[in-house]
Specification:
This protein is an alpha+beta fold. It has helices at about 25-35, 40-45, 50-60, 65-75, 90-100, 105-115, 140-145, 165-175, 185-210, 225-235, and strands at about 105, 120-125, 130-135, 180, 225, 250. The strands form two sheets. It has a four-stranded antiparallel β-sheet with strand order 2-3-1-4.
Length: about 270
């Protein structure tokens, strides 16, 4: 067998050329012509993500199955979905959906890959550590974002938690050593999550201003760049009054590490 080079110094085709990003974009144009109202940013983004969800959206089956997707993300039984708040596996699954966490044990990685939506990216023989990843996926990222809002509750009674609660759980995860950042410093993970939280606060404001509820929450990803920068610079202090119009917006809801193991041609769909 071939020796696996964890740092990607040798690329073995066809695996490093494989990508599903944008593979279902042909269905996006169909959806735009079939629907009377313009698609939301979330509805458009679905066709850039996981093909399974794109096909479900094409057949108008995605929304009715979101509770099943959420249960799988939380790694809990359908009868007791509220148990996720006590499960470190659920915390790691949701946090790593939004920001790349690093390495973890083979046992936990196996659960996250086999029973949830994590993707196996690498294995270090000496330390027996596993590198996980979550590729861009607006469906899972949006659900994780919803559960990082303590005012959110799904139709199957899965309730969200505050950002302060999530910050504490992130600290607990790293302090126990269940997950270790790839660079040995969890500072970049904390900063990335802070940037995401600031964007979430502005997206929540959009929800309130438009009286959105239930499954309509967090379907607009883009927020004012000026307001986002202002929020980050003030330590996440809520902006009072009306937010001024800004010609530039920012709409990222995940932070994904790319190890550059993909062929450059595979990124054409993003152009």
């Amino acid at each position: 067998g071939r020796e696996y080079h964890a740092k990607g110094s040798i690329l073995y085709p066809p695996h490093f050329r494989t990508t599903t990003m944008g593979s279902c974009l042909k269905y996006l144009s169909e959806a735009e012509t079939e629907k009377d109202a313009p698609l939301s940013e979330y509805e458009r983004a679905v066709y850039y993500g996981r093909p399974l969800f794109a096909l479900m959206a094409k057949e108008n089956k995605l929304d009715e199955n979101l509770n099943e997707v959420l249960i799988r993300m939380l790694l809990v039984d359908r009868g007791t979905p509220g148990d996720w708040v006590k499960s470190r596996r659920a915390w790691i699954s949701l946090l790593s959906t939004r920001v790349q966490m690093g390495q973890t044990t083979a046992e936990l990685a196996s659960d996250l890959v086999a029973k949830s939506y994590a993707i196996f990216c690498g294995y270090y023989t000496e330390s027996r550590a596993v590198l996980l990843g979550h590729l861009p996926d607006p469906v899972c990222a949006r659900l994780a974002m919803c559960l990082m809002d303590d005012d959110f509750a799904s139709s199957n009674n899965v309730k969200g938690e505050s950002k302060k609660w999530w910050t504490g759980k992130l600290r607990e995860i790293f302090s126990t050593g269940i997950v270790s950042p790839e660079k040995g410093n969890f500072g970049e993970v904390v900063v990335a999550l802070y940037m995401l939280f600031c964007g979430d606060m502005l997206r929540k404001r959009i929800n309130v201003e438009n009286s959105l509820q239930g499954n309509q929450l967090y379907r607009q990803f883009s927020v004012s760049l000026d307001a986002w920068l202002q929020l980050m610079m003030t330590g996440g202090k809520a902006i009072e009054g009306e937010i001024e119009e800004c010609a530039i917006s920012v709409g990222f809801i995940q932070v994904c590490r790319n190890s550059l193991r993909s062929c450059r041609d595979s990124w054409k769909s993003l152009a």
